[in-house]
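PROTEIN DESIGN WORKSHEET
SECTION A - STRUCTURE
LENGTH: 84
TOKENS:
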């Protein structure tokens, strides 16, 4: 894969409370060409259930990284935009 601007983007979900929210984020990311999802203290989930909701997204699901703190998830970030 070539190193594009989108390949540099990391989406971070802080304490997602439902695996459906994680799957919806994965689906949206796949649709937009984003590949890297970081989860901070997520609810327990099974990767197969995520793929069952967000079909054909194993490439994004396989790259999910989990962190204990928001600071760790945002480490090495140059720009950060927050939404709630």
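SECTION B - SEQUENCE
RESIDUE ASSIGNMENT:
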């Amino acid at each position: 894969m070539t190193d594009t601007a989108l390949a540099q983007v990391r989406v971070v979900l802080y304490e997602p409370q439902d695996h459906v929210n994680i799957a919806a984020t994965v689906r949206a990311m796949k649709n937009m060409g984003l590949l890297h999802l970081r989860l901070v203290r997520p609810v327990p989930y099974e990767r197969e259930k995520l793929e069952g909701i967000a079909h054909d997204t194993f490439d994004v699901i396989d790259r999910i990284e989990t962190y204990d703190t928001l600071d760790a998830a945002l480490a090495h970030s140059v720009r950060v935009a927050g939404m709630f």
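SECTION C - NOTES
Helices lie at 19-32, 47-53, 58-61, 70-74.
The beta strands are 10-14, 36-40, 65-67.
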